Structure of 4-vinyl reductase 4VR domain-containing protein:
Amino acid sequence: MRMSRERIFREVKESLKNIQEVRSELGDNVSLSTLRYILASMVITLGRGVGSTFYRAGYDIGVYKAKSHDLKGIEEAFEYVEKAFERTGTGIIERWEMKEDGKIEITMRESATAAGYDIGKKLCYYQAGFIAGILHGATGERWEVHETKCMAEGHDHCEFVAIRRG
């Protein structure tokens, strides 16, 4: 039997409520090195299309979080992203700015997926997807988020642009 995304996310949320009981010493902590080895292995196993898989995972989680927290509008969406990324160690949103053309520019530092690498490729697909999903869930409109600079390309921060698609 295949479970819906919604049900899977509810199950994850429920499982984390009692995490101290089942992981009394470790709790919900996982090292960054473990995460990076898992991601690297997935890139090797899944190949070039893995970026869209990570983007979609972030997107689905973002939509779920926006709906489960009843986020409304761009301001609330970014307040949530800032707190969630910092709380989970995903990254630090340093700045987000709505431009006159309706695009949103986002600057992130300390990316969990890219800080410390210099491989000449963008790696923050999950974060881009999460932001797009949060925006969709909070505004009811479709958004695309593209990473334009990445720490894994040698930059000192990551930059994204969010584009409303209707």
